[in-house]
Amino acid sequence: MNKAVSYILDLFFPNRCPVCRSFTEYNELVCEKCMKKLEKYTFESIDALPITGAFYDRKLAGYYYENEVKNGIYSLKDGHKEFGYYLGNIISEKIICDETISKADCIIPVPMSAKSFRLRGYNQAAVIAETISTITGIKMMTDILYKHESKVQHSLNMTQRMENVSAYSIKNTDLSGRKIIICDDVCTTGSTINRCAELLKSMGAAEVYAAVGTTTKLKKE
User: What is the pTM of this model?
Assistant: First the structure.
């Protein structure tokens, strides 16, 4: 979409910041005020693993899942994709600067069930992954992992989350030697990302990297 069209659309449908919902310029994904607030929650570590025996090899994230960051995620899940685009840009910068992850063969968003997709109209993890794919040139694939209908993950305790990941499955395909990025909007216990990585490695993936928009802060961090 060119700048002229974007400007005209903004006259009738003003752009709002996904974090504070204030009006912003037509070409801004997050207002400057909120961008400065988000900097306080920047995720620095790239190798922190949330659970023992993780199947994925490395992890990077945009921000810790706190305060204003949560507002952005809520808006992403509530029909406003701007924060997903913003996170995709932030994560892309980190991937490009990382000699290992930047060489990934493809990026796969954590899938959602068909019912959930119909209700929301889009997969928020795919919004982030597609942005990363566009910027980095890493191919996005959405026909490898699948999710069957299950309970909403964020409403469960840790034990229930671990049991709930059985809803994920994988297409019988040869991934031998492939280096894959698995992408999601939020990483809490890491059980979903870990299950997806386990499935990918069961099909021969050599390495799996976790790239998430936000992550909960571990006690040791």
Answer: 0.86
